[in-house]
Amino acid sequence: MKALEGVRILDFTHVQSGPTCTQLLAWLGADVIKVERPGIGDITRGQLRDVPDADSLYFTMLNHNKRSITIDGKNPKGKEILEGLVKACDVMVENFAPGALDRMGFTWEHIQALNPKIILASIKGFGPGPYEDCKVYENVAQCTGGSASTTGFRDGPPLVTGAQIGDSGTGLHLALGIVAALYQRTKSGRGQRVTAAMQDGVLNLCRVKMRDQQRLTRGPLAEYSQHGEGIPFGSAVPRSGNDSGGGQPGWILKCKGWETDPNAYIYFITQAPVWKAICDMIGKPEWKTDPDFATPNARLPRLRLIFDTIEEWTMTKTKFEVMDLCNQADIPCGPILSMEELAEEPSLRETGTIVEVDHPTRGPYLSVGNPIKLSDSPSEVWRSPLLGEHTEEILRDVLNLDDEGVAEARESGAIGEPSREAAE
Ligand code: CAO
In CATH terms, is domain 241-331 a member of 3.30.1540.10? Predict the structure, then answer.
């Protein structure tokens, strides 16, 4: 059995943030019913397509283990079907633009009246306040949640990151809220609303930068390399390049081959407890006792010199050789791994973090599996559904419609026509 077996989710999500949340819940064992617009579906099915006429990787990699039903929520019969699903589900998840669900007639009051035990979980760009009505995509959240202003180099513009902290990060936050609400319901017997705003989710992930904002009012941030370089701080937390966000200074250093390989680098942390091992490894044993280098505080204003010196050593070795040598001495470091290297990493394949999935119209593709491992609820990864692939199955199994009921739904235009692939 799976952790969330028996939990049925009405998945009204699209694009990335909501689908990452419901995909996680599906991997944990929930029955996730993805509702899509007839003939159109989640817009990502057709975005960034690499195989003509096949669902994009954008869609397939975010919608594993779900069933797809097409329903026109603005058609009266479609609304009736949706109401039936609200009654039959434990959780409804949505990430429409603010107001869209209400305009479709599904206000929280109406949803609660239909099913007082249901949990309604929503992602929006912003919480209540001046921007609550705005549509939001990933990079808007990164910029408004404090990530962009603190990412990049001091002398460059703000930067967005490759990690989708606004979308996938908020999906993760919402999934936790849903599981907590399901747990509370076992005692209260009631559903509730769960909301996660993307700005809040990003800010939560940038917590250490808010820490630094407050520390800045009491003096310079000594662990930022700009301090060692004698550059004064302004009133807001600056971009800190590759400085470590914690109390142990770190930086990205070149390794052998950096001239031609854009990823021949390693992140190197000068952790205080292993400082002596670092000095021996890089051929600077005198730094172990030199008062300018022997203590963490003495080192802070000299970090540039220290990392330049370590880099002279790392440049003589590949990133994997540096990793091996450092690990033998317990020195924390990490090679910069490209997506190409990660895709081929055997240990990630073995744990199911990277999986190969087959798909009827696009063939085999690689995906990222469930990063959360439960010993009693292992995740299996099934391909994403074709548009409307399970429409009839869901009408029959979940709503108990017979042939006549399905035909009536079809004729009313509520569920559209079966898609060519799904019909095949
Ligand atoms: N049946 C009938 N209508 C449907 C439907 C269905 N099955 N599914 C969607 N629709 C309708 C909606 O009701 C809405 O109609 P109205 O505007 O007439 O009320 C319409 O489709 C468009 O929905 P939308 O406004 O949510 O979609 P969009 O493409 O314009 O905006 C996005 C996309 C992501 C910017 C917006 O949904 C949003 O801000 N969501 C909240 C924040 C979020 O999750 N952002 C991250 C997305 S991932 O990068």
Answer: yes
Given 11, 31, 55, 167, which residue is catalytic?
167
pLDDT tens, position by position, 322-349: 999 999 999 999 999 999 999 999 999 9
**Confidence label for 246 from pLDDT (cuts 50, 70 and 90):** confident
Spell out the domain ranges in the chain: 8-205+344-423, 241-331
| Cα 209 to ligand 1 centre (Å) | 32
Nearest CA to ligand 1 atom 48: 16
> Can you give the pLDDT at residue 189?
97
Q: Tell whether domain 8-205+344-423 is in CATH 3.40.50.10540.
A: yes
User: Is residue 132 in contact with ligand 1, taking CB distance under 6 Å?
Assistant: no
Residue owning the nearest CA to atom 14 of ligand 1? 100
pLDDT score of 417: 85
Contact between 35 and 83 (Cβ < 8 Å): no
Distance from the Cα of residue 62 to its chain's centroid? 10
Average pLDDT, the chain: 96
- Provide the percentage of residues in the chain whose pLDDT is more than 70: 99
* Position 421 pLDDT exceeds 70: no
pLDDT of 412 > 80? The answer is: yes
Is 90 a known active-site residue?
no
Atom of ligand 1 nearest to the CA of 134: 39
Extract the runs of DSSP E, i.e. beta strands, from 57-210.
66-70, 91-94, 119-124, 193-197
Structure tokens at 87: 């009654």
Indicate whether residue 409 lines ligand 1 (CB < 6 A): no
Specify the residue with its C-alpha closest to ligand 1, atom 25: 97
- Which residue has a Cα nearest atom 5 of ligand 1? 37
